[in-house]
């Protein structure tokens, strides 16, 4: 879409950033896209206005990886123009393009190695008859009541053949600010990062290097690009074996250093490396059985795995997925390139199935929606690629680097708050309830309660609810700056240290212990207390009020001790709840209230 605010000032709004970059570049070369109606496209070509009749648009999707447009130019010639991923477009060229195709492929690889996003462009001249026939079959497919998508895809496939190569484009897809730093910090927090992209392998690897997921210091980078089940299995097996061998070498070298030169390990040196002068290790023959997966737990060294979409399709099959997960998880970095949106979601599902991990998917485009929905936590980046990702996400922001704060600060605090909230919640309710249980031994397990009815009603909703709520909302153990500086602080959450079975039983034990003290100490003291006349000093109500008051004071002091970060609201809630308890008790037990509402109080004598 173009918008001309004033003469010579055109603003393009495109479906994808690539398209707007291409249209803007064409404008700079004198081919200006001016306006569009449902049936026409108007351009100015080197100052000469030209209007094309738009005949059909063959939509883009992530499976086709290309899109085309069929237009009739002012001279009446019908032409199909197609742009898309090189892998799909080069397969559909006329055989006469072979030479140009080889040159273009070299250029494409060069561009991709520089980290540029590439597209190949082609055209096909259509005769009036060809167009008429195809347009009829397209109309039928479009109107089909069943399998419409498949029929349309077949129709598109039919016409996007024997095209003539026009050339290739390369567009710089700049990384956002702070991506490198964010990835480095998240890795230090022991968060495993996988890149799932639709880009071609070279571009993806280059981006991997520029965001420091891949580095030159890595022990090895494995590339899995087989086209058959067998070759993918072999490549994975080889990668796995090499990881084990190299780890043994490293461990052996370490032991050798420590043991003063003695070395015993299971690999065989076969020759001196030619490139860097390093030692090459003998790889097992391709058909060697894969090593047992428990060996993979002790991998030392930094490895990376790059897998292509077509190989991933085989790796995700039921009989290979375990091997793929174990190999990939032993690597420090995993890059899946040329993957479809469905594969992105499948990879997330695979990790959810095989690892006890919490998954987070972050993306900016419509092709990331399925993985954002599959992951436990979905994050959408709002940017140039539309709002589908944002709409599908749980959290959204405009910059990748904010992920650092989301996880290391807000995620961490949120986990801490939830755990403390839960622990305290169990504690205070056990302290409250178990007193009833102990009282049962003295009232013959009758229905009599220890506390008075008002106290039972108000304990959870008035006396003890607000302080724990304030802790659950505001608590912090370390300030945000420290969480960002020391990513290791994120680990307790991953290891489930703050709330687990052990912590749960500790809270409950503490609650039971509190209830024992709260019940038996007043019970022992008051049951022996008598006046000098020999009349017992305490009655049932004295005991009830003493225990209840002690309980409210103890749980309030406990939350004061548990609170790590005091705000004004915490103070108001903790001390206010305590104050409210005494105010209500005073009001309930004072003579004034009896005088105001004489008929509202009924007493049962327990004497
Ligand atoms: N509008 C388009 N027209 C034609 N081809 C396209 C278009 N958008 C993408 N492509 C081609 O299809 C491929 C796959 O696109 P897809 O949107 O799945 O992934 P991506 O944009 O390359 O990467 P990412 O997953 O990081 O967003 C692209 O690499 C590109 O070659
Ligand atoms: Mg995209």
From TrEMBL:
Cofactor(s) needed: Mg(2+)
Localization of this protein: Membrane
TM region(s), chain numbering: 421-442, 454-474, 504-528, 540-561, 568-588
InterPro entries documented for this protein: ATPase_P-typ_cyto_dom_N, ATPase_P-typ_TM_dom_sf, HAD-like_sf, HAD_sf, P-type_ATPase_IV, P_typ_ATPase, P_typ_ATPase_c
Enzyme Commission code: 7.6.2.1
Region (Disordered): 267-290
A single MF term (Gene Ontology): ATP hydrolysis activity
Any one GO CC term of the record: plasma membrane
Reactions listed under catalytic activity: ATP + H2O + phospholipidSide 1 = ADP + phosphate + phospholipidSide 2
Binding positions for ATP per the UniProt entry: 19, 60, 83, 117, 197-199, 338, 344, 367-368
An individual GO BP term: phospholipid translocation
Gene3D superfamilies, alphabetized: Calcium-transporting ATPase, cytoplasmic domain N, HAD superfamily/HAD-like
Keyword Endoplasmic reticulum: no
Binding site for Mg(2+): 364, 368
Membrane topology, record value: Multi-pass membrane protein
Residue stretches making up the P-type ATPase C-terminal domain: 390-595
Keywords assigned by UniProt, alphabetized: ATP-binding, Magnesium, Membrane, Metal-binding, Nucleotide-binding, Translocase, Transmembrane, Transmembrane helix
PANTHER family: PHOSPHOLIPID-TRANSPORTING ATPASE ID (PTHR24092:SF46), PROBABLE PHOSPHOLIPID-TRANSPORTING ATPASE (PTHR24092)
Name of the featured protein: Phospholipid-transporting ATPase
Organism in which the protein naturally occurs: Etheostoma spectabile (orangethroat darter)
